[in-house]
Amino acid sequence: MSEKSIILLHASELLTGAGIRAKDGRHPKEEDLGRIPNGALVYSTKTVSYTDFTTGKSGKKVVGDKILWVGESEALPSEYSGSPVFDLYGRNAIMPGLIDCHTHLVFAGNRASEFAARCGGASYADIAASGGGIQTTVNATRNATEEELFRLARARVEDAHRYGIRTIEAKSGYGLSLETELKILRVVKRLQEATPELEIIPTFLGAHDFPKGADREAYLIEILDEQLPAVAREGLANVCDVFIDEGYYTVEEAERILTRAKQLGMKTKVHADELVNTESAAFAADIGALSADHLLKISPAGIAALAASETTAVLLPGTAFYLKTAHAPARALIDAGARVAISTDLNPGTSMTSNLPAVLTISALYLGLTRAELFAAVTYNAARALDVHSRKGTLEAGMDADFFVTPYATFEELYYRFAW
Amino acid sequence: MSEKSIILLHASELLTGAGIRAKDGRHPKEEDLGRIPNGALVYSTKTVSYTDFTTGKSGKKVVGDKILWVGESEALPSEYSGSPVFDLYGRNAIMPGLIDCHTHLVFAGNRASEFAARCGGASYADIAASGGGIQTTVNATRNATEEELFRLARARVEDAHRYGIRTIEAKSGYGLSLETELKILRVVKRLQEATPELEIIPTFLGAHDFPKGADREAYLIEILDEQLPAVAREGLANVCDVFIDEGYYTVEEAERILTRAKQLGMKTKVHADELVNTESAAFAADIGALSADHLLKISPAGIAALAASETTAVLLPGTAFYLKTAHAPARALIDAGARVAISTDLNPGTSMTSNLPAVLTISALYLGLTRAELFAAVTYNAARALDVHSRKGTLEAGMDADFFVTPYATFEELYYRFAW
């Protein structure tokens, strides 16, 4: 399994985040960052196979396996002193690989023209007349082949990797039929087969919207009796998400879907309190969801419910930026004791970006978060939102060797420099 | 001079901006974009020398010279039919090279730690105690060698080129002494010698602030009698800028400096109405400045003055984003008939980015500008702000061959996709 060890030496700073894990991501403070000036990281590697779906090309890649040791360079145990060295000469900070825990990675088409029209003052009627909104993306995604979807999504995965993302969630939800939802999740599987240098975690979101013109109850039954069992049977996702909001799913409908998902052994997530308050954050906490996401309209009761639960609050400030709405109450959530993660919400309608560091800039400025809070939000807490925190999110011996050698000397430069 | 011609064929769209020039950049409308589906561009090239200041390496590069012909691919004149072809296969839009007309390109150090502290809620007293603000950058820049400044600024120029910028302004102003202001402008000259693929336009901004502890009148006299004459004598810049604001220069002081600059044959610019209203936009219009920049606090009288003048209004929405202040009244300026440009304001304190397309995203969303207004703001109108509009800013025969083959199929995708 482990063929060789590599040592990274003389990072200008190494940030382990060990203190964040110790506090399970709540109330992250500066001292929890585990800053080690002139730090070193030792990890093992493994050789894995990959296959490119579009070209059929396959081969082997050497990727990180497990972290063996982390500490000050000067304290390196002698057993590693003969290992191959990759010396950063003090130029770069090393931190846990970023985790983008809420994305709609797989879709076809783009909504640039709708975006430009909306920004330029076109009315909703104008936009609807020229065919805007989520149904545009559903139509384009339904019409796309798996090859097309794969090619488009892979470019986004490559962007994500460039921004330091080593784990990315990918929701279905632009199919809204058995066949097309499965198509999207199969593309996610093939993306993983093609890119072993990232972990891609699929989430089933058949309940992203209702298909245009569909009978509401009939589509619900399709999710319960066809889509969910097929996803579970094919092993295409083990997390189920529902978009609860005015005009989308009710809490009661979500409960039916997520109860069925749990019966099938799946974990749960909720798009909660985004457009209006439906007390869906409290519902998410109540059913033990991994995360409640968006939370622009969360109530004080919802904040208290999340703080008292194991459900992570996933904030998506890029979406608020695109929608020009007030941001989620990040400060209140953290101060109440909720575990807060931040993600891009990459999607073609309301957050067309893979640039998680740019979303951190928005978060620093407009959510008023500290360095430790931002760090936790894209590492351990995001791992928690995906239930992979037992092996990801901090740089500690035994964890996956998922790290990010940043282009800069400190972590804060990642978000001080805007849109790099 | 012109060794060969190259044809670009089958761009998904070619945007000439010819109509924007025809209206001198005021009231830009959709039809002024000069969209040509399946367009072609023919241009001549020239071979120029370059010298890298840090390595001493020199050589020759082939760069674009002049645009010879623009139109539909199918209408290509027969004289060009034998020219070498670079075929984009309909994948990319071609537009005039972006022009970033207001940057503080040359400085040392960074203020990431100050930024992180400010965002995380540290008080101004805390930040001042740890040494924040413009003086931090002045100290770092004074202490840096020309080689260090060159190396740091060249990385920023390379970023700018990646974002489609083909002309970039570079202000001095982090020296605040004869010697260090000249040092910065010499670095700008060396950047130009090293990178002939971009045009770098220097601006003298000795009046960016007063040196710490300096006698106000004594420093003014130094600018008038030493800095300005030396800059003119060495030919290091032919534009002079002044930061008029509360705590910085008064309108009266700016008038003394800019009058002297004009006597020396220089053109003028003004940092106007940023922190408080000083009616400096109207002053800029009155003295015939090329541009009045910032304008966050411009008055209705200032708007009217700019609209009635030849002075371009340069807006810097990245700075308002960083400062979390209200944006400049872009809509009112354009509607009144002012010529509006948009720039990054790249600087280490209040806009640490070279990503002009990301600033366009902010502008689209938060200034409410149309596609044509945004296009004009980073092409012809920015050329106007630098007085290079006789040869830059549109794709027309006779203009400089400064174009941007965008990574996308349409112009609007440049800013719909955030922080690419």
Brief characterization of the structure:
2 copies of one chain form a homodimer. The first copy, chain A, is α/β, with parallel strands linked by helices and 420 residues long.
Widest sheet: strand ordering of chain A? 6-7-8-9-10-11-12-13
Q: How much beta of chain A, percentage-wise?
A: 15-25%
Q: Counting H and I runs of at least 4 residues, what is the number of helices of chain A?
A: 16
Order of secondary-structure elements of chain A: EHEEEEEHHHHEHEHEHEHEHEHHEHHHEH
- CATH class value of the largest domain in chain A: Alpha Beta
Number of domains of chain A: 2
Q: pLDDT average of chain A, as an integer?
A: 95
Show the largest interface: A-B, 37 and 37 residues
First and last CA, distance of chain A: 36 Å
CATH H-level homologous superfamily name of the largest domain in chain A = Metal-dependent hydrolases
Q: Structural class of the helix and strand makeup of chain A?
A: alpha/beta
- Tally the beta strands of chain A: 14
- What's the CATH topology label of the largest domain in chain A? TIM Barrel
Biggest β-sheet description of chain A:
8 strands, parallel
Instruction: Please give the oligomerization state of what you see.
Output: homodimer
Proportion of residues in helical segments of chain A:
25-40%
Which regions of chain A contain 5 or more consecutive residues with pLDDT less than 50? none
